[in-house]
Amino acid sequence: MRNLCLYFQIHQPFRLRRYRFFDIWNNHYYYDDYLNESIMQRVSARSYLPTNRILHELLKESGNGFKLTISISGLAIDQFRRYAPEVLESFQELAALPGVEFLSETYAHSLASLGHTDEFIRQVKAHEQVMDEVFNVKPQVFRNTELIYSDEIGAVISGMGYKGMITEGAKHILGWKSPDFLYCNSINPRLKVLLKNFKLSDDIAFRFSNKGWVEWPLTAEKYAGWLQNLPEKEEVVGIFMDYETFGEHQWEETGIFDFLKAFPGAVRQETDFQFSTPSEIMQKLQPVSEISVPWPISWADKEKDLSAWLGNELQDEAFKKLYGLEEKVTGIDDPDIQRDWNYLQASDHFYYMCTKFFSDGEVHSYFNPYDSPYDAFINYMNVLSDFELRVKSLVTEPAPDSETVKLTKVLKEKEELIAKYEKELKRTRMALARTKKRGTATSSQSITRTTKKNVSGKSPGKKKTSSK
Predict the structure, then answer these.
(1) Can you tell me the distance from the alpha carbon of 355 to that of 308, in angstroms, rounded to the nearest whole number?
(2) I want to staple 149 with a disulfide (CB 3.0 to 4.6 A). Which of 167, 220, 442, 464 is the partner?
């Protein structure tokens, strides 16, 4: 039988309050608690809780036939703890059932994998710890923020002991190849790579409620027929989407929950697919080839690249300033600084600065608390300026050891001695130059007198005497 991997992403950032220029150094609390709690309560009621109830029933009814995969960012877990503990409990109940696999990711849902390897590894380890504490699981497969992947990122993850990653089946990377196979990392082939079938995924995540779509309305039976009509040689299909697809992005009135309830049965009855988790797929299947991704890809927008987060000067400047503090923050043992360091790294802050409104504006405006990308940039940079001042105030320059002091003194004495000799040498050169100048002038006068004498045959200055 062929394999169907159903994967959901869960993440909520700590959105920032309106932070003015005059708040810098006067108020060190950056978060809009009212907005964060309101959004969490709304999404919990519309999406998380009802979806969890449905999935819980499907898992219990199907025995071992229905399986799914979930990843939850550390920031989402922090928000569940603060604003919606009942949601966290419902996810813990799911984790206790067979057929559910939890993936690893960065704690802060950050962009640290893009050139900041030490911070990236730190966050992955922090997420591993919270997954063990909250769900009693040790993930074996990794998914990066927004499915960002490259050859180098995959090699780092492989070095941490993971056996696989999931990412986007981007057309510009695959070319003629299909996303419906298992691949491997081009640097370290031991890391297996499972891809998203973005067309089939987006049919549910984005087009489900679009009445102008030629396939509307979408039923579970119709969708199962599409799966069955895929070429028989294609052995694994990855259906990846946000958890909020159910109830929030696609409201209950669209019939999305009815679709979800009917989906496992339709797959079992109408197709030769079986539900599998990434770990099971990577254990059963062998990669058909390497996948070469020299430049990072993601699952965002039409371009499937990094332009949603690092596509303009605003985003680049904010990213550079944030990670310019990395070395200093690492050495600070302060829980508030470390909390803010994590929360300020959330990729959402950069996403809000995106100016790609023409092609993907509706997506970028969702859950966005700002009126424009420029408002997002100014607000974030104000917060970051205050954070930078706090960091610098806590950084203590290391005291030099005795050997360093001794060497510094020796170098200083040598520099003073060199300066003294240079001054004396300069004075000597000037004296020699004056002497040489005087000598040159004297020689010139002598030569002139001699020349005149030779021409007249007489010594200059003597009168001619007449002979008698």
Answers:
(1) 8
(2) 167
Residue with tokens 């302060």: 334
Amino acid (1-letter code) at residue 329: V
Active site residue 424: no
Instruction: Give the separation between CA 460 and CA 463, rounded to whole angstroms.
Output: 9
Asked if 298 and 146 touch (Cβ cutoff 8 Å), the reply is: yes
Active-site pick, 119, 146, 168, 248: 146
**What are the tokens at 88?**
């966290």
Taking only the tens of pLDDT, the chain with its 468 residues reads: 999 999 999 999 999 999 999 999 999 999 999 999 999 999 999 999 999 999 999 999 987 799 999 999 999 999 999 999 999 999 999 999 999 999 999 999 999 999 999 999 999 999 999 999 999 999 999 999 999 999 999 999 999 999 999 999 999 999 999 999 999 999 999 999 999 999 999 999 999 999 999 999 999 999 999 999 999 999 999 999 999 999 999 999 999 999 999 999 999 999 999 999 999 999 999 999 999 999 999 999 999 999 999 999 999 999 999 999 999 999 999 999 999 999 999 999 999 999 986 444 455 466 789 999 999 999 999 999 999 999 999 987 555 555 655 656 655 665 676 677 667 767 777 777 777 666 655 555 554 554 444 444 444 444 444 443
